[in-house]
Amino acid sequence: MGATAVAPRSHTLRHRRLLLLTVLLGAVCVTVVLSVTVGSRPVPPADAWQALTAPAGTESHIIVRSLRVPRTVLGVLAGLALGVAGALMQGHTRNPLADPGLLGVTQGAAFAMVASIILLGAQSLLAYIWFGLAGALIASVGVFALGMVGGRGGPTPVTLALAGTAVSAFLYALTSAIVLLDEQAMDVFRFWQAGSIAARGPDVVWQVLPFVVAGLVLAMVNAPGLNALSLGEDVARGLGQRIGLTRGVGVAAVTLLTGAAVAACGSLAFVGLIVPHLARSLSGTDHRWLLPYSGLIGVALLLLADVIGRVVAPPGELEVGVVLALLGAPFFVALVRRRKPVRL
Amino acid sequence: MTTVLALRVAGLSWRVRPRAAAVTLGGLLLLGVLMALNMRIGDIQMSLAEVARATFDTASAGHFVIMDLRLPRALTGALVGAALALSGAIIQSIARNPLASPEILGVTTGASVAVVAGVVVSGSAYGGASGLLSTLGIPALALAGGLVGAMIVYTLAWRRGLDGYRLVLVGIGVAAVFTNVKFWLLTIGDVNDTSRAMVWISGSLNGRGWEHVRPVGVALAVLIPLALLGARSLDALRFGDDTITGLGVRMNLSRALLILAAVLLAAVATASAGPIAFVALAAPQIALRLARCAQPPLLSSAVVGALLTTGADLIARTAFSPVELPVGIVTAVLGAPYLIHLIWRART
């Protein structure tokens, strides 16, 4: 993108981007309202509003306050976290196959949770979320260290991606072995694996909130540096970027965001695989715009899928991860077919 | 610079890299040793000398055990590993992506969905996947699921020709659908059926006989020469599409044939032993680093894949004896640290 060619149009480009951002924000608001009102017991929007502002203790007010709101907030946090983390991950590895779990975050969390169930007898979700977070952090620090020494002078995209895949496969194998030998762990694991934001409660939201906020801040700080890095490491170095630092900040952001999301909601990491491709087709490759677009699309898709999962198979529910794949993936394939994909 | 020799037979010529050839030959020797070690294990433990005698002496007591039980199992492991690795090497070359594996062609994921659906739908609390279903039904389901999955990916990715990048993206999308349908099927099933399905989707060589060896053996015998012929255009495929056309390679044709070979190899291997994880991804990357090539070398990859699977089976049977782990779990435990070691060593 040459500066001279763009300069006359940059004003309209900025307008277009702001407009798109507003549209996406609107979509998020609509899905939030849907998420609070729709379910096996529908609550009219006015009633839901009353439940938030002047709770009267009626049944629908209790449902809204204790079930729907925590579920919606968790959906917003997870959607933001996974969308942004996915875009960062694909940017840093320059690989369209990279999902936010690529650094071993998802499998680290899964392994730690399953191990805590059989070794320490962890019973409640609240107990094993901490193990999940710890597992995610340890795994991704390990992968980053490995990628760091693997490449010359800093982790290169290929060594980072391969090291992450190798560590993930290793941890997944250990998890499978435990799960095959222990039926109780298997029972927890299969539901965690399918991914859900239901029945988590406000405690879980408060637990993961600080991690998501910190991760989002780091991600936005990382965006300009990542733009420079996508010109190639030599050019970035010439522009005065400290490559190791930029990569480190990016990896920290991905770890915090993904670790929090997968520990609370299970393996929804593929949200982060698909959403950035959708966002990139709207924003182009400028990460300062790509990251917010990814986050907002992540929220809208996740909440929409969750709402559909509640109504599509009464009286039960379909896990949000399943709905997302069935809904998002065909859309994604259609998009890929329709236009030339924006390359990383 | 690595040395490159040329092998010319009847007007065709291949480039032969001495280092890759050494990796292949050394790997084959090691493979023989590992297979012999693997055949010692069973209800009756044998020494290596006894294994050798029982294999070649038709009158000996152990001949039946070796020929009917242990040799087919060992061969299935080696051939399945070779087929998966070759499939992975082709796909990684075409997609120009070290993370690509038959999974993005929809083969292994399609097979997994078909089998899990079969087990969960037909499965009562016990015995659902036994008898006829397990010997005949599951391989057939896996083969059908794998081929249908690949067909879906290929059809969706084709648009005025085949673009490697678009293939990868479509592959991600389709794999996501299959994987999540699989997760969902695992949550609705009875926990006993789920455990049994988990064993299959982890990949297992338990109780494999000659009927599992034959399809993979035939597939390899036909497809390895085909892939080696195609390897000449694979070398060109790593350049951009415009360059390839300029070099005179008929891009779509050779790509389509190579993808077909990769799909068939992965589908047949998956039907025999389940989607053994990580071999298709790791073996080509390990072979590439051992042989110091730019592209995954096909034959060396196949040998490394066979080694990885056979070694993993050996560990799977002995580590927690008498409990036998599915081999697919151990391939990652064995292959991942080695791949990490190679990445680590490459810094110098």
TrEMBL record, chain B:
Keywords: Cell membrane, Membrane, Transmembrane, Transmembrane helix, Transport
Membrane topology category: Multi-pass membrane protein
An example Gene Ontology molecular-function term: transmembrane transporter activity
Protein name: Iron ABC transporter
Source species taxonomy: Bacteria, Bacillati, Actinomycetota, Actinomycetes, Streptosporangiales
InterPro entries documented for this protein: ABC_BtuC-like, ABC_transptr_permease_BtuC
Organism the protein comes from: Nonomuraea cavernae
Assigned protein family: Belongs to the binding-protein-dependent transport system permease family. FecCD subfamily.
GO biological process: siderophore-iron import into cell
